[in-house]
Amino acid sequence: MIPTVTFIKKMFNVFNARFFDNQLPHIDIKLCRTKRVFGKFVYIKGGCRDLPVRIEISQYFDYPQKNVEEVLIHEMIHYYLCVHNIREKDPH
Fold this sequence. Notes:
By secondary structure, this protein is an alpha+beta fold.
């Protein structure tokens, strides 16, 4: 599947409820055409606290819906850690 903003926002809400107890505030969702990554969590380094900006998912790839969902969950984990000011020693 080629992801759409509508699909990603819908699944963000589903996963936010299922895995994150609705603790994640809504965040801007963007689509990109990069072939370097499937998705990324974008934030601004903010001194003692990083500031979440958006989640980007690539439309370059046509891959199974399950993979799109896994990429979104992965980026949501980064977002969760940022919101709760939990530092990642190794981001992956």
